[in-house]
Design brief:
There is one protein chain. With 308 residues, the chain is of the alpha/beta class. The chain has a single domain, classed as TIM Barrel (Alpha-Beta Barrel), CATH 3.20.20.70. 45% of the residues lie in helices and 17% in strands. It contains twelve helices and twelve strands. Strand 9, helix 8 and strand 10 form a beta-alpha-beta unit. The longest helix has 17 residues. The radius of gyration is 18 Å and the shape is globular. Bound molecules: coenzyme A (COA) and zinc ion. The site of zinc ion (ZN) has 8 residues, from loops. Zinc ion binds next to loops.
């Protein structure tokens, strides 16, 4: 019997998806969204960020949400984004077990996002990772604008490799290569991950893609072929960084699951469950949501329902 190879998906909709929405979800509705994701089979979510509530008011309830998520779903990997030691302190006080730091691969993006230059952002990320490890937390390190910066243009490959290696040396459990503005194309993904493989162990690498130019799934396939097995995605394709102009939503979890399962990989995630989460997010955010395959997926669900 052929055993399928698995990929691991972290749904970042509760953080990346909601941080930029005009409508702010209340804590109970965020919890419901996460419950639907767990019901669909997700084993890992990014639930919130511990950032300045002035910078991102949508995440102001992180300290209320995180303990509720962990109490309700004790086996779910619940990660939270923390930009600095203050964020780590707040996350730890709320009982978080996994954190993610965010280092952008350009001077200007770091300044716009976290009000630090590149060198300071690198040092603060290293300090935060070390402090998190000392607290026994699992850690992720985003290397953002890994392909292009909305302010400085193309990110030099050497810079991406240098910063990724720094995050690896700082013992991040996962280094998340992020196409923050969704500008990558499959050829570049292939090239960059081949180079990253030389400086990082493949099993530590994750990829975080946005679908701004309709290439999210193609880029995910290029990453799969390059050996990446950890993916971020956002149910319904919601998302985008408020500090990176032009960034559209993340690659939709339902698109990624469809592509991976059809290509022979196991995800452990059920599409009907994901569609229930898309429907819920759509009701809450009061606008149509869903990835590239949403029309077909819904039609398929309706047909399956008729046949049962
Ligand atoms: N959580 C909550 N409050 C924080 C904080 C955190 N992680 N870090 C700093 N603060 C507070 C400080 O206590 C201070 O509060 P006060 O004015 O009431 O005394 C205030 O924010 C300013 O602190 P300072 O260290 O000068 O921060 P800053 O103004 O340079 O902002 C960040 C730095 C990182 C806090 C801010 O840029 C931020 O939250 N960015 C959000 C990034 C983000 O979420 N991007 C999208 C995802 S990648
Ligand atoms: Zn993102």
């Amino acid at each position: 019997m052929n055993v399928k190879e698995s990929i691991h998906i972290t749904d970042v909709a509760p953080r990346d998806g909601l941080q930029n929405q005009a409508i702010h979800l209340c804590t109970a509705d965020k919890l419901r969204l996460i419950e639907l994701l767990v019901d669909a089979g997700l084993r890992s979510v990014e639930a919130a960020s511990f950032v300045s509530p002035r910078a991102v008011p949508q995440m102001a309830d992180a300290a209320e949400l995180v303990p509720q998520v962990q109490a309700r779903f004790p086996t779910l990997r619940t990660s939270v984004l923390v930009p600095n030691l203050k964020g780590l302190e707040r996350a730890h006080a709320a009982g978080a077990k996994e954190i993610a730091v965010v280092l952008s691969a350009s001077e200007t993006m770091n300044r716009k996002n976290i009000n630090m230059g590149l060198d300071q952002a690198t040092e603060v990320s290293e300090q935060t990772l070390a402090a998190a490890r000392a607290l026994g937390l699992r850690t992720r390190a985003y290397v953002a604008v890994a392909f292009d910066c909305p302010f400085e243009g193309a990110t030099p490959l050497d810079e991406l490799l240098r910063l990724s290696a720094r995050m690896h040396a700082a013992a991040a459990d996962e280094i998340v290569i992020a196409d923050t503005i969704g500008s990558a194309s499959p050829g570049q993904v292939k090239e960059r991950f081949a180079a990253l493989r030389d400086v990082l162990p493949m099993e530590r690498i994750a990829v975080h893609l946005h679908d701004t130019r309709g290439m999210g799934v193609a880029n995910a396939w290029a990453a799969l072929e390059a050996g990446v097995r950890r993916f971020d995605a956002s149910v319904g394709g919601i998302g985008g960084c408020p500090f990176a102009p032009g960034a559209a939503g993340n690659v939709a979890t339902e698109d990624l699951v469809l592509m991976a399962e059809r290509s022979g990989f196991a995800t452990g995630i059920a599409l009907p469950g994901l569609l229930a989460a898309v429907d819920f997010a759509q009701e809450q955010l009061r606008r149509p949501l869903g990835g590239r395959a949403i029309t077909w997926l819904r039609r398929q669900r309706d047909q399956d329902l008729q046949n049962t």
